[in-house]
Amino acid sequence: MTYKLYYAQGSAAMGVRVLLEEIGAPYELIETTIDMDKPRPEEQLALNPNGWIPVLIWDNQAMYECAAITVFLCDRHSEVNLAPGTHDPARGLFLQTLVYFSSSVQNAFQLSYYPDRFADTPADEPSAQARGVRRLRETWKVIDDQIGQNRWVLGDQFSAADIYLFMLTTWLDQSLGHPSTDEFPNVDRIAHAVMKRPSVQKVYRE
Fold first, then answer.
1. Cα–Cα 20 to 30 A to 132, which of 105, 171, 172, 191?
2. Which residues on adjacent β-strands are paired with residue 56?
3. CA torsion, points 97, 102, 104, 106, in degrees to nearest 10?
4. Which stretch of 52-66, 121-135, 145-159 has the lowest confidence by average pLDDT?
5. pLDDT of 57-112, one tens digit each?
6. Strands 3-7 and 27-31, sheet pairing
7. Which domain covers residue 61, as residue numbers?
8. Which of 51, 82, 113 is the C-terminal boundary of a domain?
9. What is the pTM of this model?
10. How far apart are CA 107 and CA 102, in angstroms?
11. CA 9, CA 98: separation in Å to the nearest integer?
12. Would you put residue 148 in left (φ > 0), alpha (ψ -120 to 50) or beta?
């Protein structure tokens, strides 16, 4: 079986691709766009009416939302140990962290990159964007504190949560006023460690 992944550079699909590389599963990329001024393929919209990626296809089934795909792939390929099992004490922290990444950290990025989605008028967009930048600092501080002295996000074991963290750090853009990972030493330490993995080198070198 070969997975298919709707994919664009700079998108959350890159994190899913790293995960597929770590798993060692065969996959094929379906190129699409995150440019808001360009149309999405009709086939993509049929699977995700929001027009967002990643969208993963397998066995005539499909799903979207990066955190959901991450959990699905980790559980489907549990032999690679990229997530705690359902009875592992760390399972709750794994799920909590992925949901926090997707619902809080990514929402802060949305505020910063797409303030028009949160403002009633163009005049209100700078305020929404500024709030997004403040929220990025708040949410990354929560993650940095959570990591503490852990080697990886969940403790001593590398997991898909570390891949997700790295992906999110690549979206930080200081030209937009975003914080640097230097402000969050535990996040920065893990991001640099993840960067050295062959899967990440392959996907992000492109």
1. 191
2. 5, 63
3. 130
4. 121-135
5. 999 999 999 999 999 999 999 999 999 999 999 999 999 999 999 999 999 999 99
6. parallel
7. 3-82
8. 82
9. 0.95
10. 7
11. 21
12. left
